Amino acid sequence: MTSPADAVIDLYQRHAATYDGLRGKTLFERAWLDRFLALVPERAAILDIGCGSGEPIARHFLEKGHAVTGIDSAPSLIALCQERFPQASWEVQDMRRLALGRRFDGVIAWDSFFHLTAPDQRAMFQVFAAHAGANAALMFTSGPSDGEAIGSFEGEPLYHASLAPEEYRSLLAENGFAVLEHAAEDESCGGHTIWLAQREGAAQGAP
């Protein structure tokens, strides 16, 4: 039997249109997105990991003049992105195996990274580092504390997991990121737990 963690990609693939309809477009995340954008140059190259349907976050970046590369594991969601924003770059990719061979000014994983198991989350920090250029911004959402949570989407289990805040801080530091801001269950942002960090100095091994 497929575990809830292994079923996440297929769940979004089958219910992409429903997810897109339910996904809020009011940009309640704006304040945090603008903090992230304040750390990147004009016309920055931004990597959106788990981009979903491209709205509202990728749209916000594109409207600000930035170049977006979005990746998602669900082909149906990437198809929506390609239809809406053909000027951006969209790829069907599993974030756990992401290796684009280039670095970005900003990397974001909003409401996506937290669908991974704890071991996969730990491994993702090397993926973040491999795609972050010198002084790149990194922002992601997590749970507020260590553990797993099973939500529901279209009547099916939807897996979430989180590491402890102390472990996130350690993994960020080990991979060359300094934490700039951290908010646990931010009421002004729909109760999201948010991490905003920046790559310290030159990216190691950058081309």
From TrEMBL:
It comes from the Bacteria. One of its GO terms (molecular function) is methyltransferase activity. The keyword Methyltransferase applies. SUPFAM superfamilies: S-adenosyl-L-methionine-dependent methyltransferases. Residues 46-129 form the Methyltransferase domain. CDD domains: AdoMet_MTases (cd02440). Keywords: Methyltransferase, Transferase. The keyword Methyltransferase applies. This is Methyltransferase. It comes from Bosea thiooxidans.
